[in-house]
Amino acid sequence: MTTLTIRLPDDTAERLKSLARSRGLSTNKLVEELSARALAAWDTENHFRAMAATGDIKQALAILDRLDADDRRSGNG
Fold this sequence. Notes:
The chain is mostly helical. It has one domain (10-74). The chain has helices at residues 10-22, 27-54, 57-74. This is CopG family transcriptional regulator. Pfam families: RHH_1.
């Protein structure tokens, strides 16, 4: 495990501490969880960008058209 020192404005640090307390977590655990979420979002974005770079635009648009048609038929669109 690595120790990481970060500098935050005092008000941001206090708000993070308050948020952690409200969730019954240590500030460290809260930052760990928030970091994991941010990294998961970044990994997902990179995955979709890689897929988009090699994807078939016509096929993707056809899939979206089918989904739109299904939504209209089911009354969701």
